[in-house]
Amino acid sequence: MKKWFAVIGDPIAHSKSPNMHNAWFEEMNIDAAYIPLHVKSENLESAISSLKTLGASGWNVTIPHKQTIIPFLDELDPLADKMGAVNTVVRLQDGRLKGYNTDGAGFVHALEEVIGKDNKDQEVLLIGAGGAARGIAFALQLFGYRKLTITNRTVEKAEDIIVELGEGKAMSIKEAEQSLGKFGIVIQSTSVGLANGEVKLPLSLEKLQEGAIAADIVYNPLMTPFLLEAQKKNVTIVNGLGMFVHQGAIAYNYWLEQYPNTNNMIKRLTEELV
Ligand code: ATR
């Protein structure tokens, strides 16, 4: 029987996931389809029940369901459990639903695709302490990046993540600006700069180390205000597209036990975005 997959969210029309996964199915000769499903919060439970009845093999979960889906799942991967958020559901052989979170690992895969795996001793500064930052923080720890500092406009939220991690430091934006020179890897995970009109940075990059690694999780635009400013310091740039592609690739691997070609996909989506 043909397998099928979906992404559920509200809104969903803009999602690039269907194109990406369908292209991978084609490339890898998998007889499957992936469709976007517009699911409003009040319909989440019935949507899950329908996905089960209609035999979906798995699906991605996006805003606003990443947390609220958890009570409807039978099992959680430990990382998703820690993060308290799920972006990928796998229907197991016995029909039970297992939730994963591939966002954070997707970020680390994308980072390491650009900078390699030999930078784990670097001091890392994570800017932001929202849902995306939480995923990245746990994944960084899991992958062996142990010198983590989190800064956020609301510093208490950064402190909360550090307490959960059991290691690392939280600091105010001001402190982070002053000590920016010691960080080899700086990751921007806030939604600042997303709004139309005025271009804003989450913090001043005046003291950014020459040759540092600057990563953003936003991929549209590919060069965010943060990356454009960082680029002035001769840094290595990691844009947000790799994270998007790798979170999808890890999900694909959970569903089909094969890792798709991420390089070609990143090239293809880059052409669409520039
Ligand atoms: P996401 O799931 O994308 O991480 P989120 O959980 O709403 O979204 O988190 C948004 C992040 O962007 C937070 O770190 C937030 O800072 P606060 O915790 O202080 O709210 C940050 N953010 C959003 N708008 C901001 C602004 N204008 N200035 C500074 N930080 C901002």
From TrEMBL:
Residues 240-269 form the SDH C-terminal domain. Residues 117-191 form the Quinate/shikimate 5-dehydrogenase/glutamyl-tRNA reductase domain. One of its GO terms (biological process) is amino acid biosynthetic process. Shikimate binds at residues 15-17, 62, 87, 103, 219, 247. One of its GO terms (molecular function) is shikimate 3-dehydrogenase (NADP+) activity. Pfam families: SDH_C, Shikimate_DH, Shikimate_dh_N. InterPro entries: Aminoacid_DH-like_N_sf, NAD(P)-bd_dom_sf, SDH_C, Shikimate_DH, Shikimate_DH-bd_N, Shikimate_DH_fam, Shikm_DH/Glu-tRNA_Rdtase. It is an enzyme of class 1 (oxidoreductase). Its EC number is 1.1.1.25. CDD domains: NAD_bind_Shikimate_DH (cd01065). Homodimer. Involved in the biosynthesis of the chorismate, which leads to the biosynthesis of aromatic amino acids. Catalyzes the reversible NADPH linked reduction of 3-dehydroshikimate (DHSA) to yield shikimate (SA). Belongs to the shikimate dehydrogenase family. This is Shikimate dehydrogenase (NADP(+)). It comes from Ureibacillus chungkukjangi. The lineage of its organism: Bacteria, Bacillati, Bacillota, Bacilli, Bacillales.
